[in-house]
Specification:
mainly alpha, two-stranded antiparallel sheet, about 5% strand
C-alpha cells in the first residue's frame, strides 16, 4: 500500500502588523496565523497588541531562562489563565510561585531519563497506531491534526502515567478535550479585547458542558 501524501496546511505570516479586526479574525481562525513574520527570524520579538505588548521568545536558551532559570520573575499571562483555568484549575500550567515549584518537583521523577526510556515503547506504539490510522485514509482525505494529536497524547498518558486507571469513556474524554480547545481561540480574541468573562462566544455552552467531562480524570 502506497503511503498517502500528506500536505501540511500553509501558514503565511503577516509581514506587517495586523489591524485590530484582522488580528481578531486570525486569532479566531488559527492563533498561529497572527504571529508576525519576524517571529520566525528573531530570537526575541516584541509586537504591539491592543492595550499591551506581546513578547515572542523563540530561542531555546531564552525559553529556558523564562521557564526555568528565572521562572519567579515571570507570571502566567491572563490569556493562558482565562483559556485553560476552567479545566486545569491551579495545575502546573497555571500555578505560580510556591505552588508551581511544588508541582514541578512532584512531576520531575516522571521525566527522568530512565523513566522516559521505560515509557518509550508505549509512546512509539501509540505513534504507530496514529500512523496506521492516517495511512488507512483514502487518498486526498483530510486530517484534523488537533484532534489526532489530542487522541495520540491521551493514549500515551493513559498507557504511561495512568496505566490501569479508569477514566470512564476515553473516546468521550477525547472529544471533550478537542471540543474545549476549539473554543479557546474565541477566548483568546475576547481576552485581547479585554471583554469580561460573561461575554458569549460560539461554542461557549458546549465548552462549559465539556468541563464536566474532566471530572472522571484521576487526580
Amino acid at each position: 500500500m502506497q503511503p498517502t501524501a500528506i500536505i501540511p496546511a500553509r501558514i503565511d505570516p503577516p509581514a506587517q502588523p495586523l489591524t485590530l479586526l484582522a488580528l481578531l479574525r486570525a486569532v479566531v481562525r488559527n492563533p498561529i496565523e497572527s504571529w508576525p513574520r519576524a517571529v520566525y527570524r528573531e530570537h526575541l520579538h516584541r509586537a504591539r497588541m491592543p492595550g499591551r505588548d506581546a513578547v515572542f521568545v523563540m530561542c531555546p536558551a531564552l525559553i529556558r531562562q523564562v521557564l526555568v532559570d528565572e521562572a519567579d520573575s515571570f507570571e502566567k499571562g491572563a490569556m493562558t489563565r482565562r483559556a485553560l483555568g476552567p479545566v486545569l484549575g491551579d495545575a502546573i500550567l497555571i500555578a505560580e510561585g510556591t505552588r508551581w515549584r511544588w508541582q514541578r518537583r512532584a512531576a520531575a521523577p516522571l521525566f527522568r531519563r530512565e523513566q522516559l526510556l521505560d515509557f518509550l515503547p508505549l509512546m512509539i506504539a501509540a505513534a504507530e497506531r496514529t500512523r496506521q490510522r492516517w495511512l488507512s485514509l483514502p487518498a486526498g482525505g483530510e486530517i484534523d491534526v488537533t484532534r489526532e494529536m489530542t487522541r495520540t497524547t491521551l493514549n500515551i498518558v493513559l498507557a504511561t502515567m495512568l496505566p490501569g486507571s479508569s477514566v470512564g469513556d476515553p473516546a468521550r474524554l477525547e472529544r471533550a478535550i478537542a471540543d474545549y480547545l476549539e473554543s479557546t481561540s474565541w477566548v483568546m480574541a475576547l481576552t485581547i479585547l479585554g471583554a469580561p468573562r460573561w461575554v458569549p462566544y460560539p461554542g461557549m455552552r458546549r465548552q462549559h458542558a465539556d468541563e464536566t467531562s474532566y471530572s472522571s480524570w484521576p487526580t
